[in-house]
Amino acid sequence: MGKSVTSASDSAQIHQAQLLSSTRITPEASREEVWQLVFRTNDPDFDAKPGSCIRVLAPGEYGNRYHPRLYSLADHDYTTAGTEFALCVRRCFFVDDVNGEEYGGVASNYLCDLKPQSVVEFSGPVSYPFAIPTDPYTNLLMIGMGTGIAPFRSLIRSIYEKHGSWQGKVRLFHGARSGLEMLYMNDANNDLALYYDQPTFKAFQTVSPRPAFNEPVAMDKTLEQNAAEVWGMVNSPNSRIYVAGLTKMQAQIDKAMSSIAGSPEAWSEKRQELVAAGRWVELLY
Questions:
Q1: What angle, rounded to 10 degrees, do the helices at 227-235 and 249-261 form?
Q2: CATH code of the domain containing 195
Q3: How far apart, in whole angstroms, are the C-alpha atoms of residue 5 and residue 67?
């Protein structure tokens, strides 16, 4: 998952990492081209955690040395050879408002076109929004859209593979335009199926009702269809609610939660309570 940034002040130290592998994780038939890139750095000062972000320093344009962009880690491991970490990158394009021409996103195309053994520069970790609670009885509600699933994949793997077990409920709501783009849940890559047999884990998928017409992903409907479970976790005193993805998903979440809570006012009050307690954390781009 990536988002634009305008400052490099979060971390002045620049690290280097070598690309070990680059794998497309959406089927060839999908219009969405998403890649998982696995890097390794032997810099001992790079201290990554599940949910961390790094700032990739892609080659700049127009006289700028770098084109920085934030990405959440989709995975990371410490090995004898260094720290390995994965990024989930969607090849992006944008249309110039002046001439109407389509151009490739600088950072995403740079990363998607990298070949193994290539070396990238980056800084970070920049932030640590989605921490794993110390209490394994904590309930975790994760809501992600598109590449917003990247930090949640890292958290889920850490919870079940590194902690050994998790006693609290872990619920993942993930949205994509179609089943082909359901990252880590499609025919090309189905990593999350590894955790379906965990008694505390459930995943809820939601797609666009009419993807050919670019109709929005029906995340609000999926949340409302599971209102009892969602609201139970929201009101559990030992819960955390993590949200990641495109900014436009916020309106859908607010719509669904307002319906579940009974009114927009009731949801606004509850959300403020959650934020104040550090139980509602979001990373939108």
A1: 90
A2: 3.40.50.80
A3: 9
pLDDT in tens, 158-184: 999 877 779 999 999 998 888 888 898
Q: How far apart are CA 142 and CA 133, in angstroms?
A: 13
Which residues sit opposite 23 in a β-bridge? 36
Query: 111 by DSSP, 3-state: which?
Result: helix
pTM of the model: 0.86
Its sign, for the CA torsion 14, 15, 21, 27, is: negative
Sheet holding 139-145, edge to edge: 201-206, 170-175, 139-145, 239-245, 280-284
pLDDT in tens, 260-282: 999 999 999 999 999 999 999 99
Give the tokens for residue 113: 């076109």
Which structural domain, as residue segments, surrounds residue 60? 2-123
When divided into structural domains, the chain yields a total of: 2
Please say if the pLDDT value at position 13 is more than 70.
yes
